[in-house]
């Protein structure tokens, strides 16, 4: 098996983690995938070491947390942004996600949250001070996310 190739067990583990990483134990995953809890733990460690499994991020309802405005800024950076530049953007108040795009003039999406229009205006001003041109800004009403459906649903009884 190639270094970054996933087998059925890896895919099943990833599928189960995508469903609910917080409340799913290695024993639960092992039962579904057909391996021991120890094998699941070893596989998860290996997936993390290989950079395939990069983290465990909570799904936050920003509005319920007091941040009524959820904004998506479409931006243009003069040059393809470096990782350091993106880290600087992520350090800005209110910024929750930055997506680098491969091609086109609009090469950066910045997702931010705020409590008021003044707050969002300040975030936009900070982005512009960093050298970004804001091409468009949109208020997100709701976001729907699903796990990638090709990761081992059949291994975990998810079909």
Topology, please?
Layout: H1 8-20, H2 26-33, H3 37-49, E1 69-76, H4 83-90, E2 95-100, E3 108-114, H5 117-129, E4 133-139
Antiparallel strand pairs: 1-3, 1-4, 2-3
Would you give an account of this structure?
This protein is of the alpha+beta class. The chain has helices at 8-20, 26-33, 37-49, 83-90, 117-129, and strands at residues 69-76, 95-100, 108-114, 133-139. Strands 2-3-1-4 form a 4-stranded antiparallel beta sheet, with helices on one face. A hairpin with a 7-residue loop joins β2 (95-100) and β3. The radius of gyration is 19 Å and the shape is elongated.
Summarize it.
The chain is 35% helix and 18% strand.
Top keywords for this entry?
Alpha-Beta Plaits, elongated, Arc Repressor Mutant, subunit A, alpha+beta, single chain, 4-stranded antiparallel beta sheet, 2 domains
Shape: elongated
Number of strands: 4
How many individual helices? 5
| Alpha-beta content class | alpha+beta
CATH superfamily of the largest domain: Lrp/AsnC effector binding domain/regulation of amino acid metabolism (RAM) domain
CATH class group of the largest domain: Alpha Beta
User: What is the CA–CA distance across the termini?
Assistant: 25 Å
């Amino acid at each position: 098996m190639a270094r970054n190739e996933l087998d059925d067990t890896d895919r099943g583990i990833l599928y189960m983690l995508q469903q609910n990483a917080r409340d799913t134990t290695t024993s639960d995953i092992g039962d579904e995938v057909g391996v021991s809890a120890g094998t699941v733990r070893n596989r998860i460690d290996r997936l993390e070491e290989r950079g395939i499994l990069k983290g465990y991020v909570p799904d936050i309802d920003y509005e319920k947390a007091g941040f009524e405005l959820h904004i998506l800024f479409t931006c243009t950076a003069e040059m393809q942004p470096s990782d350091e530049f993106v880290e600087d953007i992520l350090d800005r108040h209110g910024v929750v996600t930055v997506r680098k795009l491969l091609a086109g003039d609009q090469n950066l999406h910045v997702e931010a949250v705020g409590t008021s229009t003044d707050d969002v205006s300040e975030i936009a001003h900070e982005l512009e001070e960093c050298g970004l041109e804001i091409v468009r800004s949109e208020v997100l009403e709701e976001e729907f996310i699903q796990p990638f459906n090709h990761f081992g649903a059949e291994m975990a009884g998810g079909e």
